[in-house]
Queue: 2 jobs
Job 1
Amino acid sequence: MENNQIEVVEGDITLCKVDAIVNAANRTLLGGGGVDGAIHRSAGPELLKECEALPELEPGVRCQTGDAKLTRAYQLPAKYVIHTVGPVSRDGLHGEAEKLRDCYQHSLELAVQNNCRSIAFPAISTGVYHFPPKKAAEIAVSTVKEFLSNHPDLEVLFVCFDRRTASIYHHLLSDE
Ligand code: AR6
């Protein structure tokens, strides 16, 4: 049975009316392709301005891999955008799984710290960053479930851009 705090939907995360949507960004936080491009396009130019104003941790880097930063969401129906930077999948020997887990964990923590009751995640790192989709979904689901066991008032949406990804999540969540 699917957990009643978790929902899986197939669609476009920019349309989600939740407190926070998560962006699969890169370390510059200045936009890019994929879901990052879609979020910046829909939010409007003020989002980029707020991202540019975030402090640089090193030249050109506003968020380290596995970490997360929160901004307003401007023209999006959500209240906040939580920008996280997933790992680029290499050979699995560079801490990729741990870094991906950190993305989910830090995004969830930031949501709760900002009084969010609902948060929507895309399938972080499974596009341009080539993380294997099934392994990525396992990490997403296990991290979220563990977090929700201590946060019974939070709702989590997994927003899948294609049917194949959605079916991976449905399968994982109906497995227990
Ligand atoms: N709504 C929900 N999911 C989406 C959407 C959308 N509108 N658009 C794409 N996806 P990717 P990454 C899915 O490549 O692998 C960017 O250039 C997509 O099908 O967006 O973490 C950043 O700036 C895939 O399942 O992110 C970084 O440089 C998932 O979102 C880099 O790509 C993630 O694909 C990050 O790569």
Job 2
Amino acid sequence: MNNEKIKNLISAMTLEEKIGMLHGQGFFQTRGVKRLGIPPLKMSDGPMGVRQEFPMASWAAKGDNDDYVSYFPANTALAATWNPDLSYKLGNALGAETRSRGKDVILAPGINIIRSPFCGRNFEYMSEDPYLTKKMSGPVITGIQENDVAACVKHFIANNQETKRLEVDVQMDTRTMEEIYLPAFEEALTNADSFTVMTAYNKFNGSYCCENETLLKDLLRDRFNYKGIVVSDWGACHSTVESAKAGLDIEMSVTDDFDDYYFGNPLYEAVMTGKVDQGLIDEKIYRILTIMDRLHMLDKGDPTNSPIRKSGSRNTPDHHGAALDVARESIVLLKNNNRILPLNPQDFTSIAIVGDNGDKKHSTGGGSAEIKALYEHTPLAGISSYLGGNHKITYIKGYSSEKDAGPYVAFNLREEAKRLASNHDLVIFIGGLNHDHDTEGSDRSDYKLPYQQDQLVKELSQVCETLISVHISGSAVDLTDLTTYSDALIQSWYNGMEGGRALAEVLFGQVNPSGKLPFTFASDINDYAAHSIGEFPGSSTVSYSESIFVGYRHFDSHDIDPLYPFGYGLSYTNFAYSDLNLSLKDDYLEITFTIKNTGERSGKEVCQLYTSQIHPSEPRPHKELKGFVKIDLQPGYDQVIKTKIPLRDLGFYSEISRAWITEQDKYQIFIGSSSRDIHLSGEFAL
Ligand code: BGC
């Protein structure tokens, strides 16, 4: 449809019809204009799959049997793969499932920065690092949108905590926004071309994100030249005129008084009384129709009859395969004493799996990210399918995640676990968090492992010869005791429908682990910047006065040793790095180095590139991630990696110049297998 036709459609519409397209008329859709062939815009959560079906005006799920879907690994898992090809694959499968459910917009991916391990929604986000977030989220968006479905990146901006999320005022300076919180959104709304974006609940520097002119006007529209649709988070809009003028296009909310929404009757009135210009309404409608057109929703009036629009598919072997591929590459090997992993099934006949997460399904929890999964392989299911019938497998809870389980229950479960574990050849502890902790609407307040798991692991280690532990979470947790008492330790995630199978494949060596931590695991919560300055979760305001020193940027600059650093993850093989060569071109730095698999198994490695400016005129982190390459190498083979960093990426946002600048100075480059395991370094001058 050309511009002219869209404009004609707009002129044929009444104000009432326009208003119907600008706010929810059901919890997940707007109203269409039937007589003109404009369908409603239908949305669904996001991000680990397409959420179950809800009636138009009720939060009690329909309970149908045809809305089971593929359950994909959470964004933290995806980020831990450090593999953008997998992001694309996951996005593409998610987009196809969305379309197959008849939706137009999937409310995903979540790309807020992980500022504190306590944020309840970290599992829906990706990383503490803006570069990793940006590189891993862009391809998700591309993948989704190839299915004639719009992505909706969320939550713009600074929704980094759930405590008081509906009203907290996040205060940050421009540099912090530019360097840490904005880059992934900028990428999503420019290069990755996300058709929609969701504004956050919170205030940003004094005004709600839905009516924040700096965010919606100056940044989105003027600087990014963003032509897509701005949707409010559900109930995040607080005004009619201000929000309309700032640039909000569609107001969604959680109550069923749809006509009374700010963008319902009040917006109609505001136009009628001249407080909001008709032209402004038309601009919003123009944007919505343009996106509908790009999604082929207007081709024949009725999207289901459209000859062009893709119809999607769900629960295909390919989609389940995508979930499995991501899960396989997301698992992070944290510790492997005496190379006890991978396990050889021939070495034992009986195995005890201890821990609530050993047989817990996580798909149904977490808030709006809940998934009605077609199936979910728990670790127990994965391990027993992998081993088949020749092993005796006993599952023991060991601790209870029930809210009312008192000390007596805990003691009994622990005693039972010890008794049974000591009768088995092999003990695998599988614990961690669940969606009572990693959830929308609240933050954690305790950095320790819940349910006395530390005590259990300590006592288990006393009764069994070797203890393999698996920690499942969407956030960092104090793993000090788990590390101390386990011979091997694996970090896994809410890892989708195939998570249990992927875990078994890693434990038994069919898959060589290649995941790397997308955020720092500290041994003390006060080691994190936001906590060290007492600015999490704040009160009615929270000041991000740690500035750009988020995640490893803070640990490096303050010389704090993390328990497991950003980018960390072991393999069953070894890699050697050599022959670094730097060559400065007009507008980029060319980097060449060699990596060799010196071990006995094939494996994947994430080579990470960090840079540092030696004498910056304003404070800068010791290291900043500026590139990474994931390679797959057979044992004994090597590969020459040639990559580049654009010189503008070496710069920083100067509060003094109020601009991004790249200073003439000496710079260092570090190449490593984590932010702390640096194997090659070099220097160059600009
Ligand atoms: C969440 C969004 C979600 C929306 C719709 C809100 O509470 O913050 O992420 O997409 O609900 O369910």
